[in-house]
Design goal:
282 residues; alpha/beta; D-Maltodextrin-Binding Protein, domain 2; five-stranded mixed sheet; 13 strands
Length: 282
């Protein structure tokens, strides 16, 4: 074999190896915000898909991922559903899946979901300005949101994608509150669309029975809700879990505090280019 033919064989072999290597790479999208990225990576590690460097914990990022075949793509959490056709898989918060379904997107059920000890500590909360933590209007809102009516709505509507975490639901009202004194009050609450604004509609009906108006203002991002409460433009918000609020307070000095937990949203691994876990050897 002459040199030219030998070189051609070597190049062809290298191209084949490169092609096989490229095909072996599995791209998985994860949220790019600190608390949710670490949570997504933990889901992947719990299921033997990747390994996370020791000590990374709640601040793990793609830089801490150990894998020969999986490529982690850090993307805005609210864009992961839109990016699914360009990814093999993505780890997505269930609220964004619900948003997508409401908008008419087709998305298969989660191939993997978080275990309880992972998603329960990240239950979604009602938060108010620090000055209003003990106010009667806050107590009235909390009682409505932790009611049996809201619990039933969550359980009957979301088929497990959203889970109530209220163990002792109320009848919608707080016996210690003077509702007559609150008659005519208006409460502005900032919320993201699904499931938060939807769940708030049930509380709105409960509060209306006591002549309290719940004005639900829907935000599509995650940067304005705490700022609105801190500035007094909204009385409360409902869109986040406690670790996210803690991070916001630490970074921005917001005077915003949690007053109640309502529900939790398990993260799930959803298929994009892949319809099952075979590409991951599962």
């Amino acid at each position: 074999m002459n040199i030219r033919k030998l070189l051609a064989v070597v190049v062809a072999a290298l191209l084949i190896v490169s092609s096989v290597s490229a095909l072996a790479e599995i791209h998985i999208g994860v949220p790019d915000d600190t608390t949710n990225e670490a949570r997504a990576l933990q889901l992947l590690q719990d299921n033997g898909i990747i390994e996370i460097a020791e000590g990374a914990g709640e601040t793990a990022t793609k830089a801490d991922v150990i894998s020969d075949t999986v490529v982690i793509d850090e993307l805005p959490a609210d864009q992961l559903v839109n990016m699914l056709p360009d990814l093999d898989y993505a780890v997505i918060n269930s609220n964004f899946v619900l948003d997508a379904l409401d908008a008419g997107f087709e998305i298969n059920k989660a191939l993997l979901t978080e275990v309880e000890e992972k998603y329960l500590p990240r239950a979604n909360i009602i938060a108010v300005h620090s000055d209003n933590v003990d106010a009667d209007l806050t107590k009235a809102l909390v009682a409505a949101m932790q009611s049996q009516q809201v619990k039933d709505y969550i359980e009957n509507t979301y088929a497990g994608a959203v889970l109530s975490v209220v163990d002792e639901p109320t009848d919608g009202y707080d016996a210690s509150v003077d509702y007559a004194a609150l008659a005519g009050a208006k409460l502005i609450i900032a919320a993201t669309p699904a499931p938060h604004a939807q769940i708030l509609e049930i509380a709105k009906q409960i509060l209306a029975e006591k002549d309290i108006t719940l004005d639900i203002q829907v935000f599509t991002g995650y940067t304005e809700e705490n700022r609105a409460v801190d500035a007094g433009d909204a009385y409360a918000n409902y869109f986040q879990h406690q670790p996210y609020l803690d991070e916001e307070v630490a970074q921005n000095g917001y005077k915003v505090e949690s007053v109640a937990i309502v529900h939790t949203e398990p993260m799930g691994l959803y298929g994009g280019r892949q319809s099952d876990l075979a590409a991951l050897g599962k």
